[in-house]
Amino acid sequence: MDYVKHPQAIQSESLDFVGQYTSALGLGPVEDQIYRRIIHTTGDPAIVPLIAHHPQFVTAVYQVLTKKNFTIYTDVNMIRTGISEHTVVSLGGQVVCRIGDAAVAAAASEAGETRAMTAARMSQNLIKDNLVVVGNAPTALFTILEMAAEGWAPAAIVGTPVGFVGAKESKELLEQADIPYLTIRGTRGGSTIAAAVVNALLYSLKD
User: Could you list the residue ranges forming a coiled coil in this record (predicted)?
Assistant: First the structure.
């Protein structure tokens, strides 16, 4: 059987194919690439109506990615490892996830809350004015929005937590906050989508 074997050719052909689902949406070139990568990652064009983003989202993220010593803060390690670290480092930044820190685990246990919540509170200096990427834990997104109201707002948020307890509600709250965002409405989402969004932004900036 004849089939495409080269990895770059597979990805390029896939992204070109899903363009049929974004071409009529009137998106800017960067937003179009983001939407294509979300469809490509999920394998599901039906996700398009669930994608929502702030009109200043791309601009806000670019402002982060072009400043010195920027941080991309993630709620879980799956996102951290999914983001192109080579590209982040080449731009002068770092990707940080603290959910596995021993100090975070101890403090979360004592407080009786999720490690994602504690990690966020213990990372306020890394979160403020940087890019936050939440793809798993609704409690992380709730906490970061509370922190924003207290003066620790990130410059932009990719908020795609998945699940049936708090995910939908946390993303609804995100859309009401005065912070540039991209989200997947409802219970759908996940870390792979979050990482794909960030990579689309990184690659578009490098290009």
Answer: none
